[in-house]
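Subject: Sanity check before I submit

Could someone independently write out the structure tokens for this chain? I want to compare against mine line by line before I put it in a report. The sequence has 195 residues.
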Amino acid sequence: MADRNALVRWDDAGIAGAVAGRLTADGVRVTVVPDTASPDGAVAEAVGDSGVLDVLVCAVGQPDPAPFLGADPARWYADVMAHLTPAFALARAAAPALRRSGAGRLVFLGSGWTAADRPCSTAAAAVQGALVALTKTLARDLGPDAVTVNELVADPASPPSPEVLAAAVSYLCSDPAGTVVGQLLTLGRGGPLRP
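---
Independent answer below. Compare away.
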């Protein structure tokens, strides 16, 4: 993966550091930005003068548990949008530069369907369900330009180590993973299976 560049957006500094370290060891130039960074500014910083982005890694969190009954609709909607919109905006800002790569990789980190297993998690499930759909549809839409889009799924109740996450990101960004498209790769040590 030498001579490639990556943009990593993660709200957990430990995980961001592990992912950046692994990609750097793979020969990738890495720019790490916080989840508060401007999407256009983050992409511009990562691509520099080349105009090309080879890898985008973006973590998507979820709202805290809250009862559905009696919930304030405006607050519920705001919580969902606060977690989902930054990922959408960053992917949208990065898409032109990823398409110019010729072998672009977009990797989301979410919790997949695990949010639906938790009580008081309608907002979290809405965010993560939307992320699954975003992964699948972006894989279809960006695929013709040789951009793969996949999601790493990690259950917040039993998260993998930063090193495991970093290794999985490294794999999905590698040349051998060029045929892995629109998939949810679940990290863990067993448990219920999801489509």
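---
OP: Matches mine. For the report I'm noting this point. The two ends are 30 Å apart (CA to CA).
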